[in-house]
Amino acid sequence: MYPWIGKFLYPSRWGKLLAFRRQQEHYFLPLVAEIKSQKPSQDNYSYVRSVLDLRIHELGDMQVPEGQLVSLISEFLGNASDSTGAALEWTMANLVKHPEVQTKLRAEINNIVCGSKGFIEDADLSRMPYLRAVVLESIRRHPTIPFVMRHVDGDEAAKALGVSRLPRGGTTVNFLVGKISRNPEVWSNPMSFSPERFMPGGEGESVDLTGTREIKMMPFGAGRRVCPGMTLAMFHLGYFVANLVREFEWLEADGDEAVDFTEYHGFPFTTMKRGLRARLVPLVHLTK
């Protein structure tokens, strides 16, 4: 409620916070200035432009202040890259630990991307069902979002929660995402890494990531407040994983640097407590 108290209670941390804020402004304010200088059009209408065009009616149609604009841009870009990066690390760690899955995935990739083309195009990803299965199994087994909080109220919500009634004004429910996606009543052998469960005929073949039909897993939240970047995140994960697997063989490191799946429950993402260490062997691709 009173964030300014922090500078007196934790002066060193407050200094780091201010330094980080200055760094954000150093990176993002030139971006804002460049977009302001451009003439708006449908071809270059970006997220930053949409925020610049906002008006705060309660303050006389004032534009979003520059400081808040920097915070919004940082949240939009940072959350997208950090969560995708964490999911990518979990995925590659599982491929290191399961070389048979890695080999099968590489075979699918090379079967699609072969000959003189020599690189993966965006359209190729839709022809790689096993790649999609690997990504889905990774975010099921290791969701990067630890929980989703929702405010609920009314008799229907009480019935769904298995209680007689809710407090006046409703209450907040904390959905543990990992518990949902690793529920043994929904998934067979939920702690195992098995992409085949998302292939045709598998229990997760038609899984709904938006939570509109059912909720077997919710790595991007669910319902009306599902992550708006879900489609982009799935594309990025598939593209990065496909290229990393095609260009390198990923082998487990020895000794203390072996894969450790211990989770670190930070805020706002769940990451590997000890970052992935692996031995990479470059692969040679033959062209026609």
From TrEMBL:
It holds the Pfam family p450. Its main location: membrane. It is a single-pass membrane protein. GO terms for molecular function: heme binding; iron ion binding; oxidoreductase activity, acting on paired donors, with incorporation or reduction of molecular oxygen, NAD(P)H as one donor, and incorporation of one atom of oxygen. PROSITE patterns: CYTOCHROME_P450. Keywords: Heme, Iron, Membrane, Metal-binding, Monooxygenase, Oxidoreductase, Transmembrane, Transmembrane helix. Heme binds at C227. It is found in: Membrane. Its cofactor is heme. This is Uncharacterized protein. It comes from Eleusine coracana subsp. coracana. The gene is gb13504.
